[in-house]
Amino acid sequence: TLFDDLCDKHGCFKVETMEDTYVVVAGHEDGDGDHAESVVRMALDMVEAVKQIEYPRHPGKHLQVRIGIHSGGAYAGVVGNKMLRYCFFGDTVTIARGMEQTGFAMNVQLSAATKEMLAGRWELVDAGQRNIKDQG
Q1: Rounded Cα distance, 46 and 65, in Å
Q2: Between the CA of residue 30 and those of 12, 41, 98, what are the distances in Å?
Q3: Tens of pLDDT along 45-92?
Q4: Among candidates 105, 107, 38, which has minimal Cα distance to 71?
Q5: CB 28 within 8 A of CB 76
């Protein structure tokens, strides 16, 4: 798919797709110090890519995405006995999900941790603080 190709382009790894969610990680294999940059570049490409996708039954209406990014440690492992899945767990995943859920359509929302990693390299716009469920 289009997003899978963007994963390859930016060195990200697709963890899963479920319903309307597409989850990627970067830096998990080699400790890439620039993983935040890789994920942000992919996110911006995703926003641009969906501008070209129209709803089949609504000509002129385009698909929209909300993207949330958080940087930090996570646990990974294979889950299941019959239908195995490689999953990531932990606060980092929860915060990233919350960033997406409280974000704005066609925007990329970063946590403070990711913002700090990109400081001085990107021009970022402050959209205000968000309260992420179970994170304060």
Answers
A1: 8
A2: 12, 19, 26
A3: 999 999 998 888 988 898 899 999 999 888 889 999 999 988 888 898
A4: 38
A5: yes
